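Recap quiz, item 2
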Amino acid sequence: MTLPLPALRALPLAIGLVAALAAPALAELTVDVSFKAVGDVELDDRLGETLNAANHYINIDDCADYAAGEIDVTFGKLSDYILGDFSYALMYAQPGVTCPITLNPATTTVGCYVVEPGDDVTSATVTMRVSLDKLIGSACDSGDSGDAHLYLVIQESGAQTTSSKTVDVTVDLKRPDPPEVTEVTGGDARFTVEWDDSGAEDDTKYIVYWSTDAISDTEADGVHHKSGFTGSSATIDSGVSNDETLHVAVVAVDEADNESVLSNSLTVTPEQTEDFWEAYQAAGGTDPGGFCFIATAAYGSALEPELDTLRAFRDQMLMPTEGGSALVSSYYQHGRRWAAWIADKPVARAIVRVLLVPVVLAAKVILTFGPYVAFLMLLGAFALFRWARRRVTSGTFSFMSSELR
Amino acid sequence: MRVGLVLGVVVALLSTTAARADSPRDMMLELHGGAFTPGVDDGLGNGNTPYGDIFGTSMTLLSLHVDYEMWQGFGTLALGGGLGYGWVNGKALSSDGEKTDDDVGFNIVPLTISLVYRWDWLEVKYGVPFVPYFKAGLSGTIWWATDAKDDIANTRGPNGEERTGAGLTLGWHVAAGLQFLLDIFSPGMAQQFDEESGVNNSYIFVEVMHSDVDDFGSDSSIDLSADAVSFGLAFEF
């Protein structure tokens, strides 16, 4: 039989269509996935043993730590498939390779490792042992990066539908580029370092290193660091002394926690500066600071109920906060002197008592209802006042109108 | 003379269109915005200028004032209170007096109690849209200075004692201002504003205030006295 030429040309297309129709359709399985280390391998948070973790990473350090190691990958929640006539396959592929999602896959694909080509589902969980070296698929210093895949395939006997679960593991063996430190400016026991982050990925974080000696080894004695910075600048304001020349360098950290090599280093010498309060004191200012409304002196007795309110406000509202605690500390440093100052001045005491009235009232409301409710009550009281005033006004007008009638 | 004539004509024209809304009025809310330079440097009295050296500019001050109109006759007498927030930022100084990159600040929260007299008789009687007013009262200003870490500043006194850069300083103030009634531009809208929210009159104003805030002349208080000009909106309801 001889086929006409047009029919011959259409043959590959027809074969493709038939093959596509005959291939089982794919559906995503909803199963649990967990990792468990085998032997001496210790999994860190990047790869993780958390059930159904969203992201899995293997970075350069992990690559070294996991050498010759294995993990068990368990797919669970398969009880629905036990009673039926279901079969499953388990396999994994190194980065840059994909396995055919089917039972009894061809094993000729380099980098695709079939652990179980096809077996009946007889329990609610199935486990495959994965060689981490094979999963990583590259030398740790290769600079390669890509996603490895873990597969579970399930198919009912005679059915055209294949269900599968694919778990991606990002194997990132590429260090991020080091940032370029562009400027370091010193302040009072602090410095600010800026760097060029152009070209960095959005989720890059940075570690700032500083030392009085030139930095060549970030683990060396005397090298300090602070991590977790984003953007292109950071201010270091703890652990910094004035009048010491510091070498400052930065390291970039990518999403897989790979660290770049150390950036270039610049130096800075933080020096003491004078803020306004220091300048005021140095210029002969005599105000000792601290709050001078010494309630005890103003009220004339330490047993007044208003003082209980203020003490409660101090203990419950001010002390738990950093700023409030500082104010209270200041109060106790200077309080006695100010109390003595106003104690023998009746006018000053009277003025302070008047000024304290709204303070005490506000403290009572805030202590009773909390700051947010107190604020809402203030708004509500104002609205109620306005409403009542309008109602009274409206009623008065109505009464007058009826009188006139 | 020509200016006076023009002003007279304008006032006459405006007064014919102005109309006082009907609902009762007994409160005034003022929203102020302005700038002032506290007299810290003058208060030192020794030629040193720490405020000028570090900040070199005025503080920005936003505040509100609410008063209750106790008496309305030949003008309005009211008692009110105010609350504000003022701030200024500058650069800390190096040991040789040069500005550094360290940001520092000075903040105030002025609290006031004032007796207010507004001469609104012409406005009530004849619809003249200008209302001069005067205020006098007591002030209490909470203040704090911040260091380069944005914490409350700290230093040592002459005897080594710790001195915290925060406190409350008392004083008094007087003020004079002029309000201009906005309702004349749209009496209908003003009437609707009154009916819907009870606001009788809306004003813009300018106010000049002299405050003497140094704990009534205490030698050991920071001097926050100032002459300040503010502008704003006021609503009578």
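Chain A has nine helices and 17 strands.
The first strand of chain A starts at residue 25 and ends at 28.
End of item.
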